[in-house]
Amino acid sequence: MTEKEKLEVIKHSYEVLQSLVKDLTERVKDAKDGIATSDQNLIMGSLYGLDCTAERIKNVYAVMTYLHTNRG
């Protein structure tokens, strides 16, 4: 893999991470709003979404770490 290809993968991974952070922020806000209104279904749905988002962040981080440690 060339340096340019590695940079493209890292750039894409960064964009995915930005999207996931935005999603995570929205889900946390939804959970807080759910607590304020005592809407248990909203809270449980938000927590499930947080778990999925965290797993995706972990996977992107693993790819970025792999690319960084296997340079050249």
What does this structure look like?
The chain is an all-alpha fold and 72 residues long. It is 90% helix and 0% strand. It has helices at 3-37, 40-69. It is elongated. The protein starts with a helix and ends with a helix. The model has no long low-confidence stretch (mean pLDDT 78).
Concise description?
With 72 residues, this protein is mainly α.
How much helicity do the residues have? over 70%
Structural class designation: mainly alpha
What is the alpha-carbon Rg in Å? 16 Å
How would a textbook summarize the main sheet? none
The number of helical runs is 2
Low-confidence segments = none
Q: Into which percentage range does the β-strand content fall?
A: under 5%
H/E element sequence: HH
Mean pLDDT: 78
- Please give the number of β-strands: 0
**How far apart, in Å, are the first and last alpha carbons?**
8 Å
Keywords:
72 residues, mainly alpha, 2 helices
